[in-house]
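Minutes, project check-in
Item: structure for the 167-residue chain
Input as provided by the requester:
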Amino acid sequence: YWIDRERMKRKESIHNMRSDIAGNLHQDINTALNNINILSEIARIKAIKDPDKSIEYLEQIHTKSENMIIAMDDMLWSIDPANDSMQKTIDRMRENLDAVNNREGIHITMEVDQPVIALELNMRARYDVFLLFREALKSLAKACAVNCQIQVSFNRPNLIFTFDIQN
């Protein structure tokens, strides 16, 4: 009975975590779509009177919708049970790293220590680690870090990201 109860608690915990992430996604989508709707209405009104201002609103719509697509992709990726391992998270981090390198014309590399790959983080922690990593990449690109080495290590209980930046 006790073992079954603990198993059910774990299942419920995972279910609640995924429901929480889905709720956040719903809220983000709703906010983004409302913003896009308002901006498109303003752009439509301005199209005749002030075409330059209309183009500015269209650019904002494009940026907001692109950011929403990326956020939805990350969120849906994180709740997919097939991605419930640190190795999959590291692979996703490398995909983002390659995209930033290609888009920005910079050279960022990443080394991951073996103990990191063996970590068993819950879905929320892996998602948060991924988001922090993605934000760090954006910051490196904005800072024009032409060459950078990222070292990911684990020193219980901390997951450590070390950035060696050479401009």
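Outcome recorded: The two ends are 60 Å apart (CA to CA).
No further action items on this chain.
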